[in-house]
Amino acid sequence: MTLAHGGGGSAMRDLIEEVFTGAFEPDGMEDQARLEAGALAEPGARLAFTTDSFVVSPVEFPGGDIGTLAVNGTVNDLAVGGARPLWLSAAFIIEEGTDFALLRRIVASMKGEAERAGVRIVTGDTKVVGRGAADRVFVTTSGVGVIPPGRDIAAAHIRPGDVAIVNGVLGDHGACILAARGDLALSSDLQSDCAGLGHLMEAILAAAPNARAARDCTRGGLASALNEMAEAAGVGIEIEETALPLRAEVKGTCELLGLDPLYLANEGRLVVFVPKAEAQATLAAMRAVDTGAGATIIGRATEGPAGQVTMRTLFGGSRIVDMLVGEQLPRIC
Amino acid sequence: MTLAHGGGGSAMRDLIEEVFTGAFEPDGMEDQARLEAGALAEPGARLAFTTDSFVVSPVEFPGGDIGTLAVNGTVNDLAVGGARPLWLSAAFIIEEGTDFALLRRIVASMKGEAERAGVRIVTGDTKVVGRGAADRVFVTTSGVGVIPPGRDIAAAHIRPGDVAIVNGVLGDHGACILAARGDLALSSDLQSDCAGLGHLMEAILAAAPNARAARDCTRGGLASALNEMAEAAGVGIEIEETALPLRAEVKGTCELLGLDPLYLANEGRLVVFVPKAEAQATLAAMRAVDTGAGATIIGRATEGPAGQVTMRTLFGGSRIVDMLVGEQLPRIC
């Protein structure tokens, strides 16, 4: 990759035609995508709009790469808010000297994940910067989706007594990236949990008509998601240490390094709050979807103290689970 | 700025609340913006969606900064396609150690430009990477707009005889960035032409109901925009060297450095093709808008050769104006 590939001229056009056009939309990625807005025309439908930059290091890791993350991260931001993901944009900042082959693998990942999620990547951009001005490839995706009429899930709706459910084991992505960096001499078979959660959210919302709110547990992990939800709802949240689904390998990594798995990043895990009466139906519906096979109840909302997350420990005690203060692991996504 | 500011925990929340929330939406930048889609509900309306990453160096320059570019670049991508810009997302990749004050200035620029353009910045993201893994700040904006029913402007609609109009002097942005880098020991009073062109495009479309197509002349300059348009329409395009609006200072810079002003980047300039019968009305309408004060006819579409752009020179000759092949100036936007 040379600076000319970002120059706006024919080298850039060749790059776009060779690497991007075939993989994404048949007509290439124009400056502007023009989309039939039929799904948005329904009275009461709302448009959902979200964006994330991805700077993960290493760019490729067991279970995925920066492209997998970029598509699923944005799909999931839409889905956990109750939106049906429709269209994605993809903007690449590429360091001069980056392998074309790497870029092709990333784009192929994006194409595959978009197909799985049922979204279209409809517009894009590429910039190339000199050596040392970026670290290989950064990808920024934005997503547009539609929130069907009458659907309104939000953290503020959580009520005391509601049940908290996660869709599978926690911390795999964080522990996998840690191992993949190599500087800790950890060897592991861990794979990132990176996955799109759109189909799972639709299954949840079909099974639990009164589902309150969901969050994906990315940067800052389950602990940060729960703290944000407790604060927005003005409730307490209590989780059970014995109920947390954790692989022995992730537990071991955390013990070795003094990390708390509650703060480890996930890229295919969400926590959803539903009324107690809908909890069993939600669990069954989640377990019928591949990304929800490991669904399990981890706790509940309580009267308070408002905004506080507590964990009942293995030994019967209770400890406060705070927001993450510093940085557990940079460039996790 | 420290890595903790990108960690997903409380330091990041403080950063978002302190720097972004006040400047952008009153409710802060949530993971997902939820927007009333009334403008899109009109039968026949289409949604326009676009994205661009900005990596300009230096980050601040006479007439603007990376924030000015990020808002106007995306607004203009929407506007030149006939869309009314509505909502923007903003994703920041920030190098560790970057000044908070710089970030605040960039965000203030974005707020001001968004207000001028009549768009709302409704969602965002921040990532922090280590020293040397990025060059201060990169900003990626995406934009959503609505194309009113029946409006359809596209390069493919250009017909022989159509008139090409630009909205002002060319190359100021490119020449200004060149001078601002300092390594050429150029001193100049040039300012970037960076500006939002949404209001200008609405004036053009009101005056020229049969306007064919418009492009903003960013990376690759006027020459690249015209080449793309000639190719898409299967027409020739002929421009007049004597008609090109260029400041003496920009001409001088180009002569000194062996650059061609046709390839210099602009960030507030567009070229629009209208039927000859609508050209005078278009000119008058453009000149009534501040960003169109310098509107002037520069050429016309011809029977061909298809896809070829030619320039009638000062001396009565004719030369082919090709796509830019290499890179005239990296990190111009």
From TrEMBL, chains A, B:
Recorded family membership: Belongs to the HypE family.
Pfam families in alphabetical order: AIRS, AIRS_C
InterPro entries named among the record's database cross-references: HypE, PurM-like_C_dom, PurM-like_C_sf, PurM-like_N, PurM-like_N_sf
PANTHER family found in the cross-reference section: CARBAMOYL DEHYDRATASE HYPE, HYDROGENASE ISOENZYMES FORMATION PROTEIN HYPE
Domain PurM-like C-terminal: 159-310
Protein name: Hydrogenase expression/formation protein HypE
Domain (PurM-like N-terminal) ranges: 42-147
CDD domains with a match to the protein in the record: HypE
